[in-house]
Specification:
Chain lengths: ~70, ~425, ~200
């Protein structure tokens, strides 16, 4: 059984574009200035979407750490 | 490879330093001017010779571990552990951090100005212990000239095998943060970088880097001479040794003093001539520290364990005394505005969040708002969301102010403030032009 | 000449090459405009934020199909000797060396942009971004290639497509340049504020 994965934001690279929050609305919310707040670990069902969000980030600021 | 050579012709014996006497780091009697190399060696003797081989290094690191020396830059990380981590890597580099970006703190500047050779000893020693060929010593511009002369003295005496490189530190608050120091040395940009990777694995020039506060290195130079037991003769069992403390605010003689860790706060204040006015609160640790009520704090030992019940700590060694006739909220608001302006500007939550929070704290101090809801919400959104601890430290300061100055908050909400003092207590540099 | 006869005859490959070339110019221009829009955060209001970058990427990959068709039909055309080398080596064609060479150059530049984008996570942001700038060079090279290698500019609708592409790209580039002037990045220091492009809901600045 794969353990849930964790999303991590590189705060220096992140520019608050907000694409990640659109793809993972339950998992990523935006603070009052548009920067992402990760709400917990990535459930198995959303790992594919999380990979999508990682790919789409224009600043390559989102990282998915898979745990075995 | 011999790390140290005695070719100065001075007596090679290590002079005895009484274990339980202060000061250890600073010259006795606060003589004006820096201790020359001759005076330094006259007082402390030379660093013990070391072959620089691995067993020798391990033995020294073991001694440091027994001494219980921890970092004096504010984080109090066990020094031996840091040394061991970097010593295990190839081709490391040592950075002595004397930037002291905190405007209220003066201990590193005073240490460098009075005992430059002790710091340089420590830097050279740390380099030998981890196998580094170079020690980069970052100092505040006000003491740069003194260090230039000290390094020149040592070079003339052929004292060190390790190359010492002097760099003037960045004149910014975040400039003192470890990764920011490395970034400053490498690229002239005083901005923290993202960890991982840790500096002990990849730092200056991509090499494993040991970053130590200059005071830590000074203590290191003494532990190498006199041993762990000597070091532990002062201080507490869990927090041994001495530390430098900047004492400022409503005290009669603001200064930097060396104290045994665990000295009661009241006694520390008396070293600065005692309070110059009835006190309401103390800022403990620095601008990333915590406010505490004066009467609660005064009897407590100035140590991590001693101040823990108040949610505070010694931090970077600072006590600022707030008199009863000043407004704690106004002081906090000024400091928070400064901290917000000093954001490196790399991370959105810090750049925008601290700015918003600073505005809100100012509104509370001015009595223009009484609701804490927005502020608490923003504090929660800012805490821990940057690449470094800048937002965290600021949030901690504000939260402690909301607790300690709760009565003032009520007063301001009702439209009045009991403060009568006009001038500022906490030093904040003038706002830089954008 | 009827389309059927053209396709059936040896003119067929030549026809497809020209048609796919035009389609390629149009899609490449659209990709560039979308790329600028992604950078500036300009999009129709109802679109999700990831829509513009995703369409930019999808259309770019799609353009490879037009490119393949365009290049293959040109090489395989028995009437002219371009040679396989000219697919990647600029100015290696015997036939109309300069005009074809520009096309090859555009492919090389665009190819670099595309390939680095496919591996951009491994490459790292800085390297990827540096190569991506080549897109602004690839387009004018491709455009001049279309003017010099193309035969159909006499046709009014072909000229319309060419002009349309040029105007669209010029507008996008102008917008990009204005953005750089209005929000210059301070030398040596990254700053979060200068990259904030899309106004955020509830933002306080």
């Amino acid at each position: 059984m794969t353990r849930p994965a964790r999303l991590r934001v590189d705060p220096i690279a992140c520019d608050g574009r907000g694409l990640c929050a659109e793809i993972l609305p339950g998992l990523i919310t935006l603070d009052d200035w548009g920067y992402p707040v990760i709400q917990g670990e990535v459930p198995a069902a959303l790992v594919a979407d999380a990979g999508e969000a990682v790919r789409v980030c224009p600043k390559l600021a989102l990282h998915l750490e898979k745990r075995r | 490879m011999r790390a140290y050579e005695n070719i100065t012709g001075l007596p090679p014996l290590v002079a005895d330093q009484p274990a339980d006497q202060l000061p250890r780091l600073l010259p006795a009697g606060f003589a004006a001017g820096p201790a020359s190399l001759a005076e330094h060696i006259g007082r402390y003797g030379l660093l013990p010779s070391s072959s620089g081989d691995r067993p020798d290094r391990q033995a020294l690191i073991g001694e440091v571990e027994r001494s219980g020396l921890t970092g004096r830059g504010g984080a109090a990380f066990p020094t031996a552990r840091k040394l061991a981590a970097v010593a295990a890597q190839a081709a490391p580099v040592v950075v002595a951090n004397g930037t002291e970006g905190e405007p209220a703190s003066a201990k590193d500047k005073v240490l460098l100005a009075r005992s430059p050779h002790l710091v340089l000893d420590g830097a050279v020693l740390a380099a030998a212990m981890v196998g580094a060929r170079q020690a980069v010593v970052v100092v505040h511009q006000s003491v740069r000239e003194i260090l230039d002369q000290a390094v020149a003295e040592r070079r003339r005496a052929g004292l060190d095998r390790v190359r010492i490189r002097l760099v003037t530190g960045a004149d910014r608050f975040v400039g003192g943060e470890a990764s920011a120091v490395v970034h400053w040395i490498e690229r002239g940009v005083p901005a923290p970088t993202l960890t991982p990777p840790r500096l002990s694995e990849r730092g200056l020039g991509g090499k494993p880097t040991l970053v130590q506060n200059v005071e830590t290195l000074a203590h290191l130079a003494l532990v190498a001479r006199y041993g762990a037991s000597w070091f532990r003769a002062l201080g507490t069992a869990r927090e041994p040794g001495t530390m430098l403390v900047t004492i400022l605010g409503a005290v009669n003689e603001p200064c930097v003093h060396e104290i045994a860790i665990g000295t009661p706060v009241g006694e520390v204040l008396s070293l600065a001539g005692g309070a110059s006015a009835p006190l309401q609160a103390l800022l403990l640790g620095g601008y990333f520290g915590r406010w505490a009520g004066a009467s609660e704090a005064v009897p407590l030992p100035f140590s991590t364990a001693g101040l823990a019940p108040l949610g505070a700590g010694p931090g970077a060694g600072l006590i600022a005394a707030l008199p009863a006739d000043a407004c704690g909220l106004a002081e906090t608001a000024r400091v928070v505005r400064y901290l917000a302006d000093e954001s490196a500007g790399q991370c959105g939550p810090c750049l925008f969040g601290l700015d918003a929070v600073a505005g809100e704290v100012q509104r509370l101090a001015d009595g223009r708002t009484s609701s804490l809801a927005t502020l608490r919400r923003w504090l929660g959104q800012v805490d821990g969301r940057g690449a470094c601890r800048h937002p965290d430290g600021t949030v901690g300061l504000i939260r402690s102010a909301l607790t300690v100055f709760a009565a003032e908050l009520d007063q301001h909400a009702q439209g009045w403030c009991c403060a009568t003092r006009r001038g500022a207590v906490l030093p904040v540099p003038p706002r830089r032009q954008p | 000449m009827s389309v059927a006869a053209a396709v059936a005859g040896s003119q067929g490959l030549w026809f497809v090459s020209r048609a796919s070339g035009l389609a390629l110019l149009a899609s490449f221009s659209a990709v560039l405009v979308l790329g600028v829009a992604a950078r500036l955060g300009s999009a129709p209001r109802r679109w999700a934020r990831f829509a513009v970058p995703e369409v930019h990427r999808t259309l770019a990959l799609f353009s490879v199909a037009f490119l393949a068709l365009h290049v293959l039909t040109a090489i395989l055309d028995p009437f002219v000797t371009i040679g396989w080398a000219a697919t990647v080596l600029p100015f290696a064609s015997g036939y109309r060396t300069l005009a074809i060479g520009l096309g090859t150059l555009a492919v090389d530049l665009g190819g670099a942009v595309l390939l680095t984008s496919l591996i951009r996570r491994r490459l790292g942001y800085r390297a990827w971004r540096a190569v991506h700038w080549l897109a602004y060079l690839a387009w004018p090279v491709a455009f001049v290639h279309s003017l010099t290698a193309g035969h159909d500019l006499g046709l009014w609708w072909v000229a319309l497509i060419e002009w349309g592409c040029a105007i669209a790209v010029a507008t996008a580039v102008l917008a990009r340049v204005l953005q750089s002037i209005r929000h210059p990045r301070p030398a040596g220091q990254r700053s979060a504020s200068f990259d904030r492009l899309t106004p955020q809901k509830g933002a306080l600045r």
